[in-house]
Amino acid sequence: MRILIVEDEAELNRQLKDEMEENGYVVDCAFDGEEGHFLGDTEPYDAVVLDIGLPKMDGISVLEAWRRDGRTMPVLILTARDRWSDKVQGIDAGADDYVAKPFHMEEVVARVRALVRRSAGLASNEITCGPIRLDARSGRVTVEGLTLKLTSHEFRLLSYLMHHQGKIISRTELVEHLYDQDFDRDSNTIEVFIGRLRKKLGVDVIQTVRGLGYNMIAPDTAKE
């Protein structure tokens, strides 16, 4: 999952980035409204953490512009604790949730995780596909009850596929959602990770749809 953080306070931006990465997300960062608007308008993100008080272009204006342009990614806004009007403005502008400063990093991560989950139509942090169970909160993956050891890349790939079960996902989409903007985006690397993941899972749940991409589907469903 790929997240955008738009926050002008350099230290807070870094702390948010570190916390998100520790929880398995790929993170891009912007430090002013214009840069944040550009990234959100041109790159596909699974969620955005957006500060309201930004230089060059304030957060409300950024959010309103995204929504006008049809950008539907979930957005969590950061507001000042004593500015209830910012919260109202943010929600009216199209925000999906908010956190008031100062906040605990764990709360931001939990709220982003919930936004990503709801965006995929999931009600729980535990996602299943046949015998595979992924806990988005703990980062634990089990197959028939046995814990699986995955690299960070393999986990992100599996997580994205499980969040979008039953949908054909192209290699380009996977690259866009699994790597940050500075990564050398070679879609051929996805094939390598898919092969490793299939071998570790030991269950035929990731189907190759020739010319289109990949589809994750439970074994019983695939037989129907």
Automatic annotation (TrEMBL):
Keywords, in A-Z order: DNA-binding, Phosphoprotein, Transcription, Transcription regulation, Two-component regulatory system
Domain of life (superkingdom): Bacteria
GO molecular function annotation: phosphorelay response regulator activity; transcription cis-regulatory region binding
Record-linked InterPro entries: CheY-like_superfamily, OmpR/PhoB-type_DNA-bd, Sig_transdc_resp-reg_C-effctor, Sig_transdc_resp-reg_receiver, WalR-like, WH-like_DNA-bd_sf
Every OmpR/PhoB-type domain range: 124-218
Pfam families in UniProt: Response_reg (PF00072), Trans_reg_C (PF00486)
GO cellular component: cytosol; protein-DNA complex
4-aspartylphosphate PTM sites in chain numbering: D51
Domain annotation Response regulatory: ranges: 2-116
DNA-binding region listed in the record: 124-218
SMART domains according to UniProt: REC (SM00448), Trans_reg_C (SM00862)
Name under which the protein is recorded: Two-component system, OmpR family, response regulator
